[in-house]
Design goal:
A hairpin with a 5-residue loop joins β1 (about 15) and β2 (about 20-25). It is built from twelve helices and 21 strands. It has helices at about 30-35, 45-60, 80-85, 95-105, 120-130, 140-155, 190-200, 225-245, 270-285, 300-305, 335-340, 430-435, and strands at about 15, 20-25, 25, 40-45, 65-70, 90-95, 110-115, 135, 155-165, 185, 205-210, 250, 295, 305-320, 325-330, 345-350, 360-365, 375-380, 390, 410-415, 420-425. By secondary structure, it is of the alpha/beta class. The N and C termini lie far apart (about 55 Å). Strands 4, 14, 15, 16, 17, 18, 19, 20 and 21 form a nine-stranded mixed beta sheet that branches. It has two domains: about 5-45 and about 305-435, Beta Barrel (Lyase, Ornithine Decarboxylase, Chain A, domain 1), CATH 2.40.37; about 115-300, Alanine racemase (TIM Barrel, Alpha-Beta Barrel), CATH 3.20.20.10. α2 runs parallel beside α9 and α8 runs parallel beside α9. The structure holds pyridoxal-5'-phosphate.
Length: about 450
């Protein structure tokens, strides 16, 4: 295992001659020294590679008739929006904050999909005023409010409907959203979705261009995606037959699984487009409908493998016959996913990366919660105070879910590219912590 590249879950990680962990070729121990800890590091080259592979899969299997929209909730900041813009891919946003971030870097609004199950009037107005490409309408109240807002502005907003196709995505209950008992979208089985389509077609200031579904997250199976596309095409065909309305776009959401630990076995992402396009083409031919423009919305799979988090070890507590706690200078405030979902991560002592992992530990954060853990039963090199621990594949849903619990400052985010590093998000300061206090 010594220095074996296969011991890491992401391919951009390696070990240098000093025995230090590297990301994108840069020494993580030096990065920790230069920027401080806790620290998020994102490998921009790998982010771009993921964007291109999704894009190429649409080119290869679907004649380029589609758009990859990065789900920005996975990791959003101005620099990430700039990278997406540069790669020519679109952006999913779920709030005015995410939309504002995109606006602030001049992101092309026609490539934005605006999601969310409870958009406020202010958010709808911001989207309408900026001609956001597609607003994904979640419920009938939103449809009516959006029609009113568009009317006042004298425009016709392009919308999609979020549909619950009722597909079980074989994933963690908390992130399963395709089934009928979900707060997101219109149900197909009950006829709710069809009624909404009927209504939308009758309204003057919305233009129903497409349907959307998102069946879950961290999914390793291709079958649920294929099944969802089948259900959606059938619905598109139904709408054409019964209402004479042509649905031009089909947004199949995101949810592609990534490798957090050796137990995870993601399929290559182009297999997904390969299988889905076969099904979509076959059904469209059978039902005599035009091939829809396809959108996919990968979030985690673009950002997660590109990121790591670096911490400094403060103390180590051996509790005989129970466990060993290794305490680090961050925790649930920068990575709440273990506390929320018991999500598993791999960790490495960055300054001992070529040594064997011969201890099994619990990595604990510094927040005042017993549940503030990065993980339990984690194989790790023997850690002592002052060591740097790298937690791997933290590029998605870590920074974006971080908080100021215990009034901790949020870490900086550093991007690495072509062997160079730069700050993309500054570390918060104590002044930031009190900035809104009167
Ligand atoms: C969360 C979400 C995504 C992205 O999911 P990942 O698992 O990160 O790929 C895409 N679309 C919608 C509507 C979402 O809510």
């Amino acid at each position: 295992m010594k220095g074996d590249i296969k011991m890491f879950v992401s391919k951009n990680l390696s070990v240098n001659e000093k025995g230090d962990l590297t990301i994108g070729g840069l020494d993580t121990v030096e990065l920790a020294g230069k920027y401080g800890t806790p620290l998020y590091i994102m490998d921009e080259d790998l982010i771009r590679e993921h964007c291109r592979s999704f894009k190429q899969s649409i080119d290869k299997y679907y004649g380029g008739k589609g758009l990859v929209c990065y789900a920005s909730k996975a990791f959003c900041c101005k620099e990430m929006c700039r990278v997406m813009m540069d790669e020519g891919i679109g952006l999913d946003v779920v709030s005015e904050g995410e939309l504002y971030t995109a606006l602030s870097v001049g992101f092309p609004m026609d490539k934005i999909c605006f999601h969310g199950n409870n958009k406020t009037d202010e958010e709808l107005l911001l989207a309408v005023e900026n001609n956001v490409g597609r607003i994904i309408v979640d419920n009938i109240f939103e449809l009516e409010r959006l029609n009113d807002i568009s009317k006042k502005k004298g425009i016709k907003a392009n919308i999609m409907f979020r549909i619950k196709p009722g597909v079980d995505a074989h994933t963690h209950d908390f992130v399963k959203t395709g089934q009928i008992d979900s707060k997101f979208g219109f149900a197909l089985e009950t006829g709710e979705a069809f009624e909404a389509v009927k209504k939308a077609v009758s309204l003057e200031n919305v233009n129903l261009v497409g349907l959307h579904c998102h069946i879950g997250s961290q999914i390793f199976d291709i079958d649920p995606f294929v099944l969802a596309s089948e259900i959606m095409i059938n619905f598109i065909s139904d709408i054409k037959t019964k209402l004479g309305h042509k649905i031009k776009e089909l947004d199949l959401g995101g949810g592609f699984g990534i490798k957090y630990t050796e137990d995870d076995t993601p399929v290559p992402y182009d297999r997904y487009m390969e299988k889905v396009s076969v099904k979509v083409k076959e059904l469209c031919a059978e039902k005599d409908i035009e091939l829809p423009f396809i959108l996919i919305e990968p979030g985690r799979s673009i950002a997660a493998p590109a990121g790591i988090t670096l911490y400094t070890v403060g103390g180590v507590k051996h509790i005989p016959n129970i466990r060993t706690y290794v305490s680090v200078d961050g925790g649930m405030c920068d990575n709440p996913r273990y506390a929320l979902y018991k999500s598993k991560y791999d960790a490495v002592v960055a300054n001992k990366a070529s040594k064997p992992k011969d201890t099994v530990v619990t990595i604990a954060g510094k927040c005042c919660e017993s549940g503030d853990l990065i993980g339990e039963c984690m194989p790790l090199q023997e850690a002592v105070p002052g060591d740097i621990i790298a937690v791997l594949a933290t590029g998605a849903y870590n920074y974006s879910m971080s908080s100021n619990y215990n009034r901790l400052c949020k870490p900086a985010v550093v991007f690495v590219k072509n062997g160079e590093s730069r700050v993309a998000v500054k570390r918060e300061t104590l002044e930031d912590i009190i900035r809104n206090d009167e």
